[in-house]
Task: inverse folding
């Protein structure tokens, strides 16, 4: 109801030029949002549960009539809570599908399993959500989506279910910077300034495009994950 909210919060899902065709926008915390793989379908029964009167216009299709009832409707707290409760299982369903996708009857060693897990995550909900927020490598600016890797700050193997799909636990990085970050050769301080391990010599830093002036924009909600990375991964 407040047009200035788009200026107050830098949430990419709030801006029309970032909305893709058939994309479902989920409301909630104005600083964080996500795209559900399984959208909440608007039907007459949903309007009935929300106690919204359905009086269709003959000039519109049923889908248009249904969506317009919610698009411009000012919802009260009871209606909002009901919608959020209906969205939770849809989010869980997306997560369970991702878990199922990661299951494999082949026994892999730890390194192989992490590589395969990371590759699959890169094509999943996690990368899709990160791409909706950032369109380039957080460190060097490479913008070709085909080359960007959805890198977990706190690794998948060390995270709980919530942390594994928490967009705050992620950085979009190019392959070079993903590799050195994943192996703990670089990390970032609380202000986002790069920390470079002594394990990298000057030639490695040159070829990997790493220097002491580099930094990333880091939100408060990412601090806990980066602190874990500094203390547990950084060499």
Result:
């Amino acid at each position: 109801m407040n047009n200035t909210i788009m200026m107050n919060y830098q949430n990419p899902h709030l801006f029309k030029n970032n909305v893709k065709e058939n994309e479902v926008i989920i409301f909630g915390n104005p600083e964080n949002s996500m795209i559900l793989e399984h959208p909440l379908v608007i039907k007459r029964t949903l309007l009935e549960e929300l106690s919204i009167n359905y009086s269709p216009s003959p000039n519109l299709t049923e889908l248009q009539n249904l969506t317009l009832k919610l698009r411009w409707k000012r919802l009260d707290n009871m209606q909002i809570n009901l919608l959020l409760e209906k969205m939770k299982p849809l989010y869980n369903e997306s997560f369970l599908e991702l878990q199922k996708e990661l299951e494999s009857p082949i026994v892999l060693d730890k390194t192989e399993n992490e590589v395969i897990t990371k590759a699959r995550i890169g094509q999943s909900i996690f990368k899709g959500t990160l791409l909706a927020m950032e369109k380039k490598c957080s460190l060097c600016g490479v913008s070709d989506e085909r080359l960007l890797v959805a890198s977990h700050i706190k690794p998948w193997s060390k995270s709980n279910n919530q942390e594994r799909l928490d967009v705050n636990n992620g950085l979009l990085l190019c392959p070079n910077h993903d590799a050195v970050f994943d192996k703990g050769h670089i990390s970032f301080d609380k202000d986002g300034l790069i920390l470079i391990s002594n394990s990298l010599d000057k030639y490695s830093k040159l070829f990997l495009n790493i220097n002491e002036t580099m930094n990333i924009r880091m939100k408060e909600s990412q601090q806990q994950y980066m602190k874990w990375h500094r203390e547990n991964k950084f060499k």
Summary: Residues 77-102 form the longest helix (26 residues). DSSP finds ten helices and four strands in the chain. Strands lie at 149-152, 170-173, 186-188, 194-196.
